[in-house]
Design goal:
heterodimer; A: mainly beta; 9% helix; B: alpha+beta; Alpha-Beta Plaits; four-stranded antiparallel beta sheet; 4 strands; 25% strand
C-alpha cells in the first residue's frame, strides 16, 4: 500500500516537474501583480505538495494546491486538495534588505487511509521572512485541520549566500532547514541541508534530511 | 541687455522642449533577490514608451531606456515598481543610452 502510494506521489510530482520544465513561487506565496507562481515540493517522504497561484495585486494571490502527508510509521496518510488566498500583511523595503509578513487561509477536501470518504479541511498559516543578498531567514507555519485530523508543519529556514548575486547571475544559497510536523506525522524536528539556486524566473533547491531522505523544491514565476 | 536676457531664456526653453531624456534611472529599496525582482522588469516592459529595462541589485538601480521622443510619467514608473512589491526612492532622467548608463553604474562600487 505504501509502495503504491509512493509511486502515485512520484508520478504526480513528475507531472508537476514536467509542467515546470515546459514553461509553466520564491519561497514567498505571492509573486507580483499579474504574475503566476507554480511550485512543487518533495519533503523527505513525509510530505509532497504542488501549488499554483495567481496574484491580481502584489499583496494578494489566489489559487490552490495538493498536499500529501504520510506518517513516518506508515499508519496513515492524507491527500488534501485546497483553495487558498495568500495576503501580504506587511512588507519592509529597506535599502539593502526586505522583510515580509504573509498570512493565508483556505478550505478543501481530504481523504485518508484511517477514515472513510472525504472530509472538509480548513487551512491557515503565516510566513515571516527577512533577507539581504547574503543572509536569509524565514519562519513558516501551515495548518491543515479537519474533524478527523489536525496537522501543522512549522518550517524554519536559515540561508547564507557565499556571494551577493546580481540580477543576471545565478544566485547560490546554502540553507539549513528545521521542520516540525504535528499530529503524529514525524517525531522530533527534522533537519535538512539544502542548496538553493535561482536565475530569472526559475528556482531550484535540493538537499537531504539528517536521515538521508531527499528534500527538494522547484518554483517558477511567470 | 534686457532683450539679450529674454532671448537666452527663450532659447533655453526651446532647447528643453526639443531635447528628450533617453533613459530613466530609479533607485529602488528592497531590491535584494533577482527571482523576486522579475516583476519589475515585467511591469515596466509593458509600458509602451519602454525600449529596454536594466536591473542592478549591486546598486539598487532600475533603469529604463525610453523609445525615441517618448517619456514615462513618474507616477506610472512608481506604480510599476509598487505593483512588483518594491519602493521607489528616487527617479532621475538623463540623456545617456542604457548601455552607457549600465557601464557607468557597473564601474561604481557596489552599495552593499
Amino acid at each position: 500500500m505504501k509502495h503504491h502510494t509512493k509511486r502515485w506521489r512520484c508520478a504526480r510530482l513528475a507531472a508537476l516537474c514536467c509542467a515546470l520544465a515546459a514553461g509553466a513561487a520564491d519561497a514567498k506565496p505571492i509573486a507580483y501583480a499579474n504574475g503566476w507562481s507554480l511550485m512543487a515540493e518533495y519533503g523527505a517522504g513525509t510530505m509532497a505538495e504542488g501549488q499554483l497561484f495567481y496574484a491580481p495585486t502584489h499583496w494578494l494571490s489566489l489559487g490552490g494546491g495538493l498536499v500529501e502527508l504520510e506518517d513516518e510509521h506508515d499508519r496513515f496518510d492524507r491527500r488534501i486538495a485546497y483553495a487558498r488566498a495568500n495576503v501580504l500583511l506587511k512588507r519592509w523595503n529597506l535599502p539593502g534588505a526586505q522583510g515580509n509578513l504573509f498570512a493565508w487561509g483556505g478550505a478543501g477536501r481530504a481523504t485518508g487511509r484511517d477514515f472513510d470518504g472525504a472530509t472538509a479541511v480548513a487551512n491557515a498559516g503565516f510566513q515571516a521572512d527577512y533577507e539581504t543578498r547574503r543572509v536569509y531567514a524565514s519562519l513558516r507555519s501551515d495548518l491543515q485541520h479537519s474533524r478527523h485530523f489536525s496537522h501543522r508543519i512549522d518550517t524554519l529556514q536559515l540561508g547564507w549566500a557565499p556571494y551577493a548575486h546580481d540580477y543576471e547571475s545565478i544566485a547560490s544559497w546554502l540553507v539549513l532547514q528545521l521542520r516540525d510536523y504535528t499530529g503524529g506525522l514525524y517525531s522530533g524536528v527534522e533537519p535538512a541541508l539544502l542548496v538553493r539556486l535561482f536565475k530569472g524566473p526559475a528556482w531550484v533547491e535540493a538537499g537531504a534530511t539528517s536521515d538521508g531522505h531527499l528534500q527538494a523544491m522547484v518554483m517558477f514565476n511567470f | 541687455m534686457k532683450t539679450t536676457r529674454w532671448l537666452c531664456i527663450g532659447l533655453l526653453l526651446m532647447e528643453s522642449a526639443m531635447v528628450h531624456a533617453r533613459s530613466v534611472e530609479m533607485e529602488v529599496n528592497g531590491l535584494v533577490c533577482a527571482f523576486c525582482a522579475q516583476g519589475i522588469q515585467k511591469a515596466i516592459r509593458k509600458i509602451p514608451a519602454t525600449q529596454d529595462v536594466f536591473v542592478d541589485l549591486d546598486h539598487r538601480i532600475v533603469a529604463v531606456q525610453l523609445k525615441d521622443g517618448q517619456d514615462i510619467p513618474d507616477e506610472q514608473l512608481r506604480a510599476a515598481v509598487t505593483d512588483a512589491g518594491y519602493a521607489t526612492v528616487r527617479i532621475g532622467r538623463s540623456d545617456e543610452t542604457l548601455d552607457a548608463l549600465r557601464a557607468r553604474i557597473k564601474a561604481e562600487p557596489a552599495r552593499d
